[in-house]
Structures are given as C-alpha cells and as structure tokens.
Specification:
The chain is mainly alpha-helical and about 80 residues long. The protein is about 55% helix and about 0% strand. It is rod-shaped. It starts with 10 loop residues before the first helix and ends with a helix. The protein contains three helices and no strands.
C-alpha cells in the first residue's frame, strides 16, 4: 500500500524537479521515489561495521608500547605461527 507525502518546495526547485523528471521519462513522484530509494540503498551500503579505533593499547599484552590495529595483528600472527611450529 502506498502513502501520500506532501512537500513544500520553492518554485525553482519544483521546476528543476519537473524538468529532470521529464528528461528521465517519468513523472515527479516517480523521480522523487527513485532518488529516495537510491539514497537509502547508498546509506545501507555505507553502514558496514568498522573498527571503532585503531588504538588497541591495553587490550592484550604485545610487549609493544604502541598498539595500533596493524601492529597487533602482525604480532598475533607471528605468535600463532611460532606456536603452531
């Protein structure tokens, strides 16, 4: 089921939307729906979880003073390889 949305626009913006919709071969509503759908899809793809911080000092004993993510991974990888020999 569709819902109706009413929006107030400046004349210039309304005209630009109308012109762009005509260029794309659709009406204003279809054009705006496409824009919103594309924006939402892009927002979903950007929401991938990331590491909150590269600073891992104190999270485990590496024997190093600095503990950025890359350094800690390198140390852990090295320890695992030594342990599995």
């Amino acid at each position: 089921m569709t819902k109706m949305l009413s929006v107030r626009l400046k004349r210039e913006l309304f005209s630009a939307i109308q012109d762009r919709a005509e260029e794309m071969g659709c009406n204003r509503s279809e054009y705006l729906v496409r824009l919103v759908e594309r924006d939402l899809e892009e927002a979903r793809s950007r929401r991938k979880r990331r590491f909150a911080s590269d600073d891992l000092i104190g999270s485990l004993r590496t024997g190093l003073r600095a503990g950025d993510n890359a350094t800690v991974r390198a140390v852990i990888t090295k320890r695992l390889r030594e342990k599995n020999r």
